[in-house]
Amino acid sequence: MVNEMGKYQNIDDVLAEALANIAGAPNSAALEDVRIAFLGKNGRFTALTKMLATLPVEEKKAFGQEVNVAKAKIESELAACKEALSRRELDEQLRRETIDVTKPIRPEQQGRIHPVSKIYEEVVAIFGQMGFEVAEGPDIEDQFHNFNALNTPANHPARQMQDTFYVPNPESSDFDDSYVVRTQTSSVQIRTMENKRPPIRIIAPGRTYRSDYDATHTPMFHQVEGLVIDKNITMAHLKGCLYDFVKAFFELDELPVRYRPSYFPFTEPSAEMDIGCLKTKTELKIGAGDDWLEILGCGMVHPNVLRAGGIDPDEYQGFAFGVGMDRLAMLKYGIPDLRTFFESDVRWLKHYGFVPLDESSMTGGLSNNGGAQR
After folding, report:
1. Beta bridge pairs of residue 220
2. What DSSP assignment string belongs to 90-142?
3. pLDDT category, 322, cuts 50, 70, 90?
4. Dihedral pair phi/psi, residue 283, rounded to 5°
5. Cα 264 from chain centroid?
6. With 261 labelled, which of 66, 78, 155, 348 sits at a CA distance of 20 to 30 A?
7. DSSP assignment of 176-228
């Protein structure tokens, strides 16, 4: 074939030169230069393709086929070489960036335990001393365990879509068969009653989800609920248990408390517990003053809930309570906005977080063991 200079151009020679350059490319950047030199806009094979217009009709077909075969060969070799070079360069990068995990970190880079994780440890430590076991359950629940078994009627506001996250059931188009992202850990209480006979004494800490977002509410938050079932359980047992808890949690020898009548579908009678405090424009002090602060909801387990869990309400009775762990952290450590708990700000965590490896216990101290780094 004849090139634009009037000389014969051997496609095999160009192909051999291209393959040699590809094989000798030391890195991806050099390989890209080879691709541009032969297949780019002004590359060698692009120039050969442009020669088709100058060739006699009887030579065009054979010449075009020969160019295409050679071009396909080069593209195949480029792809294979690029993959090999990429793997080699990645291996070299990983070797260069190897971190010695046995080396101690500098103090300013030391991690912190999140306040909610600390509160979780404290709550488990306190109720563990009272003989409570920790129970867990799924975050995605069916409506029976999340609502129906807890004596929550179908028209209850908590079941509306503006308050609850629903998950479609792939096996049913009926809305009543939809799953929910649990709105409370009370569902764990039902599952415990279904699988364990009284006496029962459990707490159920975990994540819960509701469609809400402001300074004191987030779509995902942490909650701990308690359940005690046995014969002859009374409201006095509930009040004594919660009084001991709030005193231990806030580390006060005396703490004023009061109970106000309330309503929850799953308890009867129901109450809300308040603790004494002093409120000013700039300060909230727990345990002193003439003001009151709501801390949790509680009550005696409703007979319908006991029946739903497979327990005879004529023979057994019990009490239940629930409190937000994020709210406890806000009160104990003076955190003004709940939304900051979930913003992953390392400066916030350094300020409110706790030194790792220090464990909460009733004997070693709760908030002061390790201490928040202010």
Report:
1. 209
2. HHHHHHHT---TTSPPPGGG---B-HHHHHHHHHHHHHHHTTPEE----SEEE
3. very high
4. -150, 145
5. 29
6. 155
7. GG-EEE-S-THHHHHHHHHH-PSSEEEEEEEEEE-S--BTTB-SEEEEEEEEE
Which token pair is 207?
A: 């994540």
Q: Is the peptide bond before 199 cis (omega within 30 degrees of 0)?
A: yes
Tell me which residue has tokens 């006060």. 252
CA 115, chain centre distance (Å):
16
What lies within 8 Å, CB to CB, of 32 at 6+ separation is: none
CA pair distance 230, 186, nearest whole angstrom: 18
- What is the rounded end-to-end Cα distance, in angstroms, of the chain? 82
CA-derived radius of gyration, the chain: 35
C-alpha–C-alpha distance, residues 243 and 40, integer Å: 80
CA distances, 128 to each of 80, 137, 243, 354, 361 (Å): 62, 19, 15, 22, 10
Length of the chain: 374
From its phi and psi, is residue 251 left (phi > 0), alpha (psi between -120 and 50) or beta? left
Instruction: Provide the mean pLDDT of the chain.
Output: 84
- Any idea which residue has 């291209």 for tokens? 18
> pLDDT tens across 4-39, in order?
433 335 788 888 888 888 888 888 888 888 888 888
Please spell the DSSP secondary structure of 267-288, one letter per residue: EEEEEEEEEEEEE-SS-EEET-
Nearest residue to 26 (alpha-carbon basis) of 95, 84, 96, 91: 84
CA neighbor of 143 nearest in space, from 121, 109, 175, 118: 175
pLDDT band at 360 (very low <50, low <70, confident <90, very high): low
Structure tokens at 131: 């003989």
For residue 269, what are the contacts with CB-CB under 8 A and spacing of at least 6? Answer: 235, 261, 299, 300
pLDDT cut 90: percent of the chain above it: 33
Q: 318 is written with which tokens?
A: 């019990």
Q: Give the pairing type, strands 133-134 and 200-209.
A: parallel
Beta carbons of 11 and 62 less than 8 angstroms apart: no
Buried b (16+ CB within 10 A) or exposed e, 42-66: ebbbeebeebeeeeeeeeeeebeee
Q: Which one-letter amino acid corresponds to residue 10?
A: N
Cis omega (within 30 of 0) for bond into 269: yes
Structure tokens at 126: 């306190």
What type of residue sits at position 324?
A: G
What kind and span of H or E run contains 164? none
